[in-house]
Amino acid sequence: MLTLKHQILYAALLASTPVLAQGAQPGPHFGQPISAADLAPWDMTIEADGSGLPPGRGTARQGEAVYVAKCQACHGEKGAGGPNDALVGGIGSLAPGKMPVKTVGSYWPYATTLFDYVRRAMPFSESKSLNNDELYAVSAYILNLNGITRSDEILDSRLLPKVRMPNREGFIPFPRNPK
C-alpha cells in the first residue's frame, strides 16, 4: 500500500508525463538526427601518421605573429602560461620521482595531435577560425618554443608527421579495430 506522500508523487508523475501520439515511440526524443551537412565541418580527424592533414604550410617565424595575436592572451608570452595552460617546458619532468609538467613539449606524443587540437578548439573564443597556413605556422612556433623544431623549418602535411616528439614512446598504443 502506498503512503499518501507516495500517492501524491505518483499522481504528479502521471500528470507530468506527456501522452504519446498514436504510433509514437517512447523515449527521451532529444533534438533530431544530425545531418551529414551539419557533421561535415567536424569530420576532420587527423591521425598520428598524418592521415587527414589538409594542404598548407608554415614556419615558426610565421607562427609567432599568429601566436601573439590569437594565443598569447591565454597561454602567456612564449607559451609559459599557468599550471594548466602552459605549452612549453617540462621536458624531462615525466621521469619517476619528479613532479610531472605536462606540456606540448614534454607530454604529447605526436605533433599531429597539436595541429588537430588547435584546429578544432583554438582560439578558445573562436574555435576553427584559423586557416591551414596559420595552423601549420602556430604549430611550428609551439614546437620551436619547445626546442623540437627549428625556427626556419617548414611544416606541412608531409613533414609534420615526421616531427619526433620527446614523449613519443611514453604511451601504449592500442589498435582502434582489434583483430
Name some characteristics of this structure.
Cytochrome Bc1 Complex, Chain D, domain 2; two-stranded antiparallel sheet; mainly alpha; 6 helices; 179 residues
Short description:
By secondary structure, the protein is mainly α. The chain has helices at residues 4-16, 36-39, 60-70, 72-75, 111-121, 132-145, and strands at residues 57-58, 155-156. The chain has a domain at 45-169: Cytochrome c-like domain (Cytochrome Bc1 Complex, Chain D, domain 2), CATH 1.10.760.
Give structural notes.
This protein is mainly alpha-helical. It has a domain at 45-169: Cytochrome c-like domain (Cytochrome Bc1 Complex, Chain D, domain 2, Orthogonal Bundle). 32% of the residues lie in helices and 2% in strands. It contains six helices and two strands. A two-stranded antiparallel ribbon has the order 1-2. Helix 3 packs across helix 6 and helix 5 (111-121) crosses helix 6 (132-145). The longest helix is centred in the C-terminal third of the chain and has 14 residues, at 132-145. The chain is elongated, with a radius of gyration of 24 Å. It starts with a helix and ends in a 23-residue tail after the last strand.
